[in-house]
Specification:
four-stranded antiparallel beta sheet, alpha+beta, 18 strands, five-stranded antiparallel beta sheet, binds iron/sulfur cluster
Length: about 475
């Protein structure tokens, strides 16, 4: 809960002990962020464009007649272009989480909340929704005037139009989200009534994600960053005095004050800040960067764009609000010195870890055999005698072809130390389509006289599964062969 301002309510005695009421909740003030053009705004829109093109287009891409990216939870298979991941590949998901975590640590250590300001879905969708709002209702001052002067009935048509536009974007976003888990063309056909009926969970996730997008980007906006996002709270642990953050240069800007354009403000004892408040008006979280580093700051740099535009108008040098570090401000670093301080121990450690994990994961993916075999013994009968001539064990094999091409696999038992003469019967040739899984049941036999020569009990063997058309595609799994007592 937000802690509101403390209000003095009574003065109790001469020693100035003041009783205070501390509000545990402070109603949020509506933020009417003003649009601003500039370098950081261009970067922000470039990221919005890039992330959204990727997000909306990816589920429509196809790869060897299937969706290029599909997380098929029901079949427990993740398709990512040529890669098919199955539950045994869980390690890659762990590696992905590690990469994301260390990537975040690294970028935060170097340049603060870059992710929040440019690539976080909350920022990206809020930017889109705010832009739609500006197109329909006008920029900050127009919206503020309309909200103040116009009756609800007069404002309603524009609001309705805005909500409809938001709802359309949110629904498309929810549909796209579900399209990562169900082939999107089938999903689309089902939604318009030309395909199989959708299940409860498909409807649920599509509508829930749409609702979630609409609420978070349309109505809650900065409240999500301020009160719901844990990253805002623990970011300070990843910052240090050399981390680049959006900062106001107090030494240069203060004392602030209004002035005429060509006034000799330095002679009047003023700093470069003309106290115009534009940096506050453009801030999507409604804070004043001149108050120093605040957890509400998402590092979007719009206040720097705003201030630069004012500096240009006043013909002062740019950069009163800029990306810089605390050390750079305190010690007057030059740009070259700021760059030099990028390379400090924590940055080098994060980079090394990130690079190591990336190399290990890529090497492992490159060398991975696209075949997984699971051998399960028939628990009903450990071993049995067949026609007085053989001892037989039965196995159930799950053959997971995690490649894109179909293969015919040959199953062969391999033993040593008296188990050389094993032979297999049953499903010893199995045809498995690309990305499919098939079960085979085989019986492994060995001559009874050789079995009698072995000690009674279990003996390690290997079950080899090999593609007939691609012999290097081969997996050997451990199993045991029982000889009865
Ligand atoms: S203070 Fe500046 S950088 Fe921080 S959120 Fe506001 S506009 Fe963005
Ligand atoms: S935009 Fe720049 S000049 Fe204007 S109030 Fe903010 S810091 Fe001062």
């Amino acid at each position: 809960m937000a802690q509101g301002p403390a209000e003095p309510t009574a003065q109790t005695n001469e020693s100035q002990v003041v009783e205070q009421t501390v509000l545990l909740y402070a109603a949020g003030k509506k933020i009417y962020a003003r649009s601003i053009a500039g370098h950081f705004n261009n970067w922000r829109w470039a990221f919005v464009f890039l992330t959204q093109v990727l997000y909306y287009i990816t589920p429509w891409l196809t790869w060897t007649e299937r969706p290029a990216v599909l997380f098929d939870l029901e079949a427990r298979r993740f398709y990512i272009f040529d890669l098919i991941l199955v539950p045994q590949d869980f390690i890659y998901l762990t590696a992905l989480l590690l990469l994301s975590a260390f990537g975040l640590f690294l970028f935060t250590a170097v340049a603060g909340r870059l992710f929040c300001g440019y690539a976080c879905p909350q920022t990206v969708y809020t930017s889109i929704f705010m832009q739609v709002e500006r197109w329909i209702e006008g920029d900050r001052h127009v919206r503020m005037r309309h909200d103040k002067e116009w009756s609800l009935a007069k404002r309603m048509p524009r609001k309705l139009l805005k909500w409809l536009a938001w709802a359309a974007i949110a629904l498309w976003t929810g549909f796209t989200f579900a399209g990562y888990f169900t082939p999107i063309r089938d999903l689309g056909a089902s939604v318009i009534g030309h395909g199989a009926a959708l299940g409860f969970w498909q409807w649920f996730w599509m509508l829930f994600y749409s609702f979630f997008t609409m609420m978070q980007a349309g109505f809650m906006r900065e409240q999500v960053c301020k009160y719901m996002c844990p990253y805002a709270r623990f970011q300070s642990a990843m910052f240090d005095r050399d981390t680049l953050i959006v900062s106001y240069d107090n030494a240069r800007g203060d004392p602030r004050g209004k002035r005429a354009k060509h006034e000799d403000y330095k002679a009047a004892g003023k700093g470069d800040c003309i106290d115009c408040g534009v940096c506050v008006e453009v801030c999507p979280t409604g804070i004043d960067i001149r108050d120093g580093l605040q957890y509400e700051c998402i590092g979007c740099g719009l206040c720097a764009d705003a201030c630069n535009s004012i500096m240009d108008k006043m013909q002062y040098p740019r950069g009163l609000v800029r990306y810089t570090s605390i050390n750079a401000l305190d010690r007057n670093y030059t740009a070259a010195e700021v760059k030099k301080h990028f390379f400090r121990p924590r940055v080098l450690i994060y980079s090394t870890i990130l690079l190591t994990i990336t190399v290990v994961v890529l090497t492992s993916l490159f060398m991975r055999t696209p075949l997984k075999v699971n051998v399960i013994r028939d628990r009903g009968a450990l071993a049995r005698e067949v026609e007085g001539a053989f001892i037989e064990n039965t196995y159930r094999l799950q053959i997971n072809n995690t490649g894109n091409n179909a293969h015919v696999f040959l199953i062969k038992p391999v033993g040593k130390d008296g188990l050389e003469n094993l032979k297999a019967l049953g499903d010893i040739k199995v045809d498995v389509a690309g990305g499919a899984v098939k079960t085979a049941i085989i019986s492994v036999q060995m001559p009874i006289d050789q079995a009698n020569a072995l000690t009674k009990g279990s003996h390690p063997i290997q079950i080899q599964v090999q593609s007939l058309d691609q012999p290097d595609l081969k997996v050997s799994e451990k199993a045991v062969f029982f000889t009865p007592r």
